[in-house]
């Protein structure tokens, strides 16, 4: 293991019981939940995440990680955050029953987040629920929201979201991605909406047509992210991957979330996804 700082690295994260404000179904088995949590919401940046837990519950005992979907404001002040989730197991089944007014336990913000937007063109490539970080990334990159702790001197001149899902029933929150200036391209495995095929075809098409993006951010199933990373390496496009590695503690203590990265000397080493990630440069990762 390399000499990385242990939990003290996460100095600004907080653990709190917070209130559910609302819950909305976005697609099949997929929901958006809004939490009132001003302190955490004012510190978080796109690509960071937080852990969620049922207070006082031993099954599941451990929290689960969820990415920032968006922050929300009241009277011009950031007071809370939204996250999007798909039902897969124990906690997400419980979460779908949560009602406004309910208390839940969260801690965060955690992880590093995506790099701050810069000039040139940015393409975000999302597979399934991997779309959740990209509303916040897009709104920041388009200059529609300024995170207080980020410097965004130069914005991208083009921002594209390529969003792929199994079928149109699983495309979540498409209306929320109707942001001024955002180019949204859809693909479905069954052809029920948008391009019939893989979301990576949209990246290949852009490259073939001479519209290669200057940088790519991606999140979704590992095989999809591997494909995005490989296409980008071949086309010499920098990419950043947001990993959804299962996690136990979320703050660097348990090493349950390690991933392999290549070091400058060509050797492999391990990084904890929860503190050194979840966003890693594609060129450095072995998935
Ligand atoms: C940094 C980060 C951000 C994430 N953001 C989101 C988000 O915004 N929205 C969202 O819906 N999900 C997100 N996830 C994934 C989410 O944490 C899992 O879906 C969640 O932990 C499932 O909890 P559960 O108790 O419902 O399922 P469990 O009962 O824990 O598991 C159900 C099944 O899913 C499998 N599983 C659980 N977690 C994962 C995983 N991460 N990868 C592959 N298989 C898994 C288990 O092996 C099991 O088969 C994120 C994960 C990470 C690491
Ligand atoms: S989840 Fe415990 S070290 Fe990352």
Structure write-up:
- With 287 residues, the chain is of the alpha/beta class.
- The protein folds into two domains: 7-110, Beta Barrel (Elongation Factor Tu (Ef-tu), domain 3), CATH 2.40.30; 121-286, Nucleotide-binding domain of ferredoxin-NADP reductase (FNR) module (Rossmann fold), CATH 3.40.50.
- The protein has five helices and 17 strands.
- The protein has helices at residues 38-43, 90-95, 134-141, 200-208, 222-235; strands spanning 14-27, 30-36, 49-53, 64-67, 70-74, 77-86, 103-110, 121-127, 158-165, 182-188, 195-196, 215-219, 239-242, 258-262, 268-272, 279-281, 285-286.
- Strands 4-3-7-1-2-6-5 form a seven-stranded antiparallel beta sheet. The protein has a seven-stranded mixed beta sheet with strand order 11-10-9-8-12-13-16, with helices on both faces.
- β12 (215-219), α5 and β13 form a beta-alpha-beta unit.
- α4 (200-208) packs parallel to α5.
- The longest helix has 14 residues, at 222-235.
- Residues 1-11 have low confidence and may be disordered.
- The structure holds flavin-adenine dinucleotide and FE2/S2 (inorganic) cluster.
Write a short abstract of this structure.
This protein is an alpha/beta fold.
């Amino acid at each position: 293991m390399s000499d990385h700082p242990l939990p003290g690295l996460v100095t600004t994260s907080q653990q709190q019981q917070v209130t559910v404000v609302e819950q909305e179904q976005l697609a099949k088995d997929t929901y958006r939940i809004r939490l009132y949590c001003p302190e955490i919401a004012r510190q978080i940046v796109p690509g960071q995440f937080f852990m969620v837990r049922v207070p006082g519950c031993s099954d599941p005992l451990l929290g689960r990680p969820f990415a920032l979907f968006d922050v929300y404001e009241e009277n011009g002040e950031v007071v809370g955050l939204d996250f999007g989730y798909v039902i897969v197991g124990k906690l997400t089944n419980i979460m779908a029953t949560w009602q406004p007014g309910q208390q839940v336990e969260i801690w965060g913000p955690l992880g590093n987040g995506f790099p701050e937007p810069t000039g040139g063109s940015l393409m975000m490539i999302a597979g399934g629920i991997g779309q959740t970080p990209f509303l916040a990334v897009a709104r920041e990159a388009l200059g529609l929201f300024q995170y207080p702790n980020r410097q965004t001197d130069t914005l991208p001149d083009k921002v594209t979201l390529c969003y792929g899902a199994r079928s149109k029933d699983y495309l979540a929150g498409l209306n929320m991605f109707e942001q001024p200036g955002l180019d949204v391209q859809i693909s479905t495995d069954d052809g029920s909406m948008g391009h019939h095929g893989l979301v990576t075809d949209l990246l290949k098409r852009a490259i073939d047509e001479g519209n290669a993006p200057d940088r790519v951010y991606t999140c979704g199933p590992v095989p999809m992210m591997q494909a995005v990373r490989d296409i980008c390496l071949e086309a010499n496009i920098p990419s950043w991957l947001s990993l959804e590695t299962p996690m136990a503690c979320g703050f660097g203590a348990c090493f349950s979330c390690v991933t392999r990265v290549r070091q400058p000397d060509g050797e492999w080493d391990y990084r904890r996804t929860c503190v050194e990630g979840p966003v890693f440069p594609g060129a450095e990762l072995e998935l």
